[in-house]
Design brief:
It is built from 1 helix and 8 strands; from the N terminus they run H-E-E-E-E-E-E-E-E. The chain has one helix at residues 2-24; strands at 34-36, 40-47, 53-60, 68-73, 78-81, 92-99, 105-115, 121-131.
């Protein structure tokens, strides 16, 4: 019984310590802030092999330089690129995303943006559907009943 009570007390203390640490991190009210024009890009329905590029534009609405420390995608089929230079207050930046459209099916990927902004992590999403390329078909040869096809000449 003592072990059970001791375990409950230890768990409660550990959880309370973690919560206290989260609350102790101050947010700089004059720090950088990131504001995206959109956080979701919908490709709609596209054909396999189509252009998989899209841009996520953002602005530093804070009072200090904004630095994107890392931008990662949820899958290797989605490749983000971004500027490593600080974005000054009031200035804009772009995160470019390239999705591999040779995959068929639904698109549902996430790009996580980590920065020194008040909101340290922002999750961007790409959605859509990729349909297979139309296959080229050989024209059908029609033969009228009761006729003989033309001989093949060599």
């Amino acid at each position: 019984m003592k072990k059970v009570i001791f375990s409950i007390v230890m768990f409660t203390l550990a959880f309370a310590t973690v919560k206290a640490q989260d609350a102790a991190i101050p947010v700089n009210p004059n720090g950088p802030d990131i504001q995206f024009v959109k956080t979701v890009h919908d490709y709609g329905t596209i054909i396999q092999g189509a252009d998989g590029n899209c841009d996520f534009k953002f602005k530093n609405t804070g009072k200090e330089p904004l630095i994107l420390s890392n931008v990662v995608s949820s899958c290797g089929c989605t490749v983000p690129s971004w500027t490593r230079d600080p974005i000054m207050p009031g200035k804009e930046g772009t995160i470019k995303v390239k999705y591999d459209t040779n995959r068929i099916g639904m698109i549902g990927k996430q790009i996580t943006v980590m920065s020194n902004a008040k909101t340290e992590r922002v999750v961007l999403q790409i959605t859509g559907k990729i349909e297979p390329k139309p296959t080229e078909q050989m024209p059908e040869k029609t033969v009228t009943p009761g006729t003989t096809p033309a001989p093949i000449s060599h």
